[in-house]
Amino acid sequence: MESFVSDVTGICHELLGFLRANVLAKSVECDENTRLSSIGVDSLALVEILLFIERRFKISVPDSHLTRKNLETIQALAHCVNQLLLNKKCGDVHSE
Amino acid sequence: MTTVSVKTDLLRLPLTGGDYFVFALDHHLRCAGFQGNICRLVLRLDGRLNVESLQNALHRCASLDTLANLCVKRRLPFALPYWFDKDRKSPLTITEHRTTLARNDAFDPCELSAAQPLDPRKSPAVAFDMVQYADEKTDLILTWHHTLMDARGAEALLMQIANPDANIALFDRDSCPCDYLPQNVHLNALPKKVQKIVFARKSLVFIEQVHRHPLATLTGSNRKQCPNEHSYIPISFSEEETIAIDARSERLDARFYTSLFILSAVVRAFHIIRCHRGDNADAYVVPVPLDVRKRGAFGPIVSNHVTFLFYRIEPDDAANMETLVAVLKQQMVSQLRLNYHQAFSTAMSMFRHLPLGLYAEILRRPSRGAMASFFFSHTGENLNNAEEFLSVPIADLWHLAPVPVPPGAAVISGRFRKRLWLVLSSAVGYLTDAEQQLFKNTVRAELLGERQK
């Protein structure tokens, strides 16, 4: 459980870094619990974040995971990414 | 943040690639006999706004003086064009039109356009019109030359006028990048200028591919002798209808692709019109602007902070909404994944050195003059969903786009206070009244998921 939490924290950190550097204006303050819609993150910005996840973590977020809940905050998105990474890891172990 | 608002700093601030791109479209429009790339924002107010109230608000808005003085200059051939502050007070016009009619849903601003030949080479490139109706309602119309600002900039300007303490930046190039380097390790050893050329070329090759001849337009091969005017058809949705539209977009897996969902309905409408004409063989090509402003802040006001995505839709893919949404989604994600939007932004930035006529010719060349099947733009959430303008309640907000022939049609959409709206602009004479009605009915039916009667 400990490693699960720390992974989510790391993913949050990376997603926030990308968001601050590439998506948000400098004056905008946000943390992992900020509602993305309240800081102007629109559909295009979300696609950019999803493409960053694809590049950085080598996973794609399937349409079934693009729920309102998963895209509400960076924290929720990080949990979703972490779950997908765990699933991928399990899949890799089984295929070995 | 490097916010430029002092007049001395403003001198010789280069146009963005987006500014010069829309300036080239202005050249194309003027060559076709139209007034130029002139945009309008219509605020339909549910009450009377007096000229004096607007005048007082304009006097309080310091940045408006600078805005009214800006004009485009180029010192030498092939040098970068730049904004020049004439530093001479230019008269900013407010024209009042009084009518004995009550306001209804119809809107015909054609007569306004005849009175305002705005040219960014001669300031001011902004003007106001007010239409006073007999039933104590007012339409406020902000008219501006597209080179000066984009739709988001125009909304920021209105917000600044309504609230002088908002301090929305006039310029802020840091928040709107337009020049990118390729993310390609193999190119890192090359000088930055060469990297940019290679990157820009990538987008141009792609555009040549997308625009390959023939492409569908409403004008077809017969270019009629028509008055060079536009007609506008607004399509408004209630809050309940907008909720139903969102639910349908979710069912079609397009909840995060709002603009693509609307574009799909628009393509369907044009496709049905062309099918009725017995001419449905060619592919649809649509350039769609992408706002590159950083999110979360309103502004800056001046300049076009956009790049473009280019969609090509084969007629078979226009057969139903499900296929269209899937095809457009796939094209959007693949272009973003390959950074074509950044590559095109870099190309636009480089093209600023070209003379306007040559640039316009380059834009027309891949499609042999057509440029697109139609233009489309989704402006997102409008005016921060403001309830009032200068203490008068706002009923509706529309953006009106100019359109050259070819392609002869443009659609602009947005969402104001939870209500979706679209406006079809078409060159007078290229869509019959029955076709305009068919367009309206099809867009409504496709967005709401209703079967057409």
Set out the fold topology.
The complex is a heterodimer of chains A (96) and B (453).
Chain A: H1 2-23, H2 43-57, H3 74-95
Helix pairs in contact in A: 1-2, 1-3
Chain B: H1 7-10, E1 13-14, H2 17-31, E2 38-45, H3 51-60, H4 62-69, E3 70-73, E4 82-85, E5 94-98, H5 110-114, E6 126-132, E7 138-145, H6 151-162, H7 192-210, E8 230-236, H8 239-251, H9 258-276, E9 284-291, E10 306-313, H10 321-337, H11 340-351, H12 356-364, E11 375-381, E12 388-389, E13 392-400, E14 409-416, E15 419-427, H13 433-448
Helix pairs in contact in B: 2-11, 2-12, 7-11, 9-10, 9-13
Task: Describe, in plain words, how this protein is organized in 3D.
The complex is a heterodimer of chains A (96) and B (453). Chain A has 96 residues and is mostly helical. Chain A has a single domain (2-95), classed as Orthogonal Bundle (Non-ribosomal Peptide Synthetase Peptidyl Carrier Protein, Chain A), CATH 1.10.1200.10. Helices cover 61% and strands 0% of the residues of chain A. Chain A contains 3 helices and no strands. Chain A has helices at residues 2-23, 43-57, 74-95. In chain A, α1 (2-23) crosses α2 and α1 packs across α3. Chain A starts with a helix and ends with a helix. By secondary structure, chain B is of the alpha+beta class. Chain B has helices spanning 7-10, 17-31, 51-60, 62-69, 110-114, 151-162, 192-210, 239-251, 258-276, 321-337, 340-351, 356-364, 433-448; strands at residues 13-14, 38-45, 70-73, 82-85, 94-98, 126-132, 138-145, 230-236, 284-291, 306-313, 375-381, 388-389, 392-400, 409-416, 419-427. In chain B, the strands form 4 sheets. A 6-stranded mixed beta sheet of chain B has the order 5-6-7-2-13-12, with helices on one face.
